[in-house]
Each structure stands twice: as structure tokens, then as C-alpha cells.
Amino acid sequence: MESFWKSRLLEIEEAMLTVRKGKVSVLTSSAGQRDIYMVEYGVKEDFGRRANYNSACGAKDPTHYANKPEDSKPVLLIIGGIHGGELEGIVAVMNLIQLLETGEDYRGKRHDYLFENAHRFRLLLIPCMNPDGRARLPVDTLINVSFDKTVYYMQGTWKDGSLCKWPDCKAVHPIKEASDFLGSYFNDDGVNIMHDNFFVPMARETSSLLGVVDREAPDFTVLLHGGSNYENHLLPTSYVPLGIMQRQQAFNEQIAGAFLKQNLPYSKLNLILTDEGTYPYRAFNLTSAIHHVCGGISFTFESNMGLDAPGIKLTEDEILDSHFVLFEEMFRYTSI
Predict the structure, then answer these.
(1) What is the C-alpha separation between 95 and 4, in angstroms, rounded?
(2) How far apart are CA 23 and CA 7, in angstroms?
(3) Secondary structure class of 136 (helix, strand, coil)
(4) 35-41 and 23-29 beta bridge pairing
(5) In which region does residue 156 sit, left (phi positive, over 0), alpha (psi from -120 to 50) or beta (all else)?
(6) Tally: H helices and E strands in the chain
């Protein structure tokens, strides 16, 4: 296992002790009483809040929620480990924190644009939003792991021992009482945070994350996920305004060019949804909920996982490099 591939909960805890330029806090504890850490860079600005975002939209003026002048710093929220076994995002956030602290990632590789421009943003970085799921995963990498074994680690098994495959793993929720082995998708109560009941959350993890979103009004949020052996890609966000879809599609075009320059695989899906009125309806998931709390761009990034399975198989270095392409283009897009 490469030394830069830091995804263990103990490694996260140790890294938090070395943060000097950022500010470390415990966002909340998980259902299994494990700490969820957040690292902040940049001072929180006062956006003159008078109302929550929903009410401000009702008043036909979102600035009642967050009045951001042109010289205010964009707020970026980057979240790893929503599904605790999807290690790629955890590793990426850990390496980003190391870069911001030292000027190099854990490989000793520089990313000068990110390091030199970080002061222009308020950055909120959560290495692992679901430590319960991560604790349940008995390996430190899924690279070269078979697809069926990955399904077992991720979604677990039903009571009869059969694999709890996608998308049926979402058919029972919370899933704990229906499972034999609880996969790393879920916290210890069997809640998949991506599909919590956002109006009456089942998980304190969900409530705490949406609380951060409400307080911080992020301009750009990314949830880092693993996408099997597919090309890296962004997923469309359901039930957001057309203007947000268009902005996300513009970023999609931008990032596709950046991946091409780095000779890394990327699939440029259409992020402007046209089938919201057809049955079965798309899920209103955590990515959608984040937008409706703060009004900002919110999307899911699906990373290649390097499995021993059909498709494209990236190395550890290529997976991490893919995330740094994403991070750099987020900086570039929000600084335009």
C-alpha cells in the first residue's frame, strides 16, 4: 500500500493533530460515537444573514440569506467518505489538507496553483463523513479487489447471506435490521446519509452537515464518491433550478478539458436534466438537499476505483491525480 494512501480513521486523527494553518473541529459524532472532523481554512465572513435560503427566495431576494459582494471569498465545501468504504475521496481530502499545510501532498508532489491561491477561498474540508462505514471496512484499499467483494464491502448482505446489490440496497432504509453484514455505505444505525429524510433526518451526521451548509452558505460543494471502474464523472443534481444546471454543465465542460490535458479518463455526462417529470422519478438526495439549504452549486463526483473488474482501471496515483484536477478546476471556476 502506497504511503500516501491515507484512509484509516487513525491516520485521520493523527493528521488532525498536525494541522497548523487550518482550524480543526469535530463536526459531530457518528451513530457509532466516532468523531467526524472538519478542517477550515480562511476566516468566515459575515454575509448579513436575515433569513434562511428558502425564505429569502420566497422574498424574491436570496441576498437576505447571504449577501456576498464581489470581493468576498468563495466558500468551497469538499466532503469525503459519505459512503465510508469509498476510500478515494478520503485519501484525496487528506492529501489536500497536507498540501495546504506544507506545499506538497503526501507523495511530495507540488500543486502550486492550489497552494498559492488557497488564501482566496474559505475552504471547509471533511475527510470522512461516515467513519462508521469506514471502520467496518477491513481493508485499506479496494484497488485490485474483485467487483463482488467490493459489493460485499460496500452494500453488505441480506439476512439470507445474498449480496445486497445496488440499487436494491436502497429498498429498505434504515437497512440495519434487514442485513446480515452491514456494508460500509451505512452508519451504525443502517442509515445511508445520501438518502436520509432531509426534512426529518434520521442521522445526526446528516443534521450536522446540513447545519454547516446552512451556516456557511457554500458557493460550491462536492461529495466525493467511488464509481467502480467507470471513467471519472460528475453526476447530474436532481430538482435544482435550470440556472444551477447550466452552471454545473459549464463546469463540466471546463473539467473535461482539464482531464484531457492530464491524460486522465473523464466522461462528460449531460448535467441538464430533462426527464424530471417522468416515472420513476429521480431521487432527491443529499446533493440536491445541499443546494436547497444554501443555493450554491452542489454535485457528486464519481471517481474511478481501480477494481479488479471490467472497465478502466486506474492506479493509486492516477486516482489521486484525478481528484487534484477536480480541486484545481473548482478553484479556477469559482475565481472567474
Answers:
(1) 7
(2) 20
(3) helix
(4) antiparallel
(5) left
(6) 10, 9
Q: H or E segment at 72?
A: none
Give the type of residue at 147: F
d(CA 267, CA 264): 10
**Per-residue pLDDT tens listing for the chain (336 residues):** 689 999 999 999 999 999 999 999 999 999 999 999 999 999 999 999 999 999 999 999 999 999 999 999 999 999 999 999 999 999 999 999 999 999 999 999 999 999 999 999 999 999 999 999 999 999 999 999 999 999 999 999 999 999 999 999 999 999 999 999 999 999 999 999 999 999 999 999 999 999 999 999 999 999 999 999 999 999 999 999 999 999 999 999 999 999 999 999 999 999 998 876 788 889 999 999 999 999 999 999 999 999 999 999 999 999 999 999 999 999 999 986
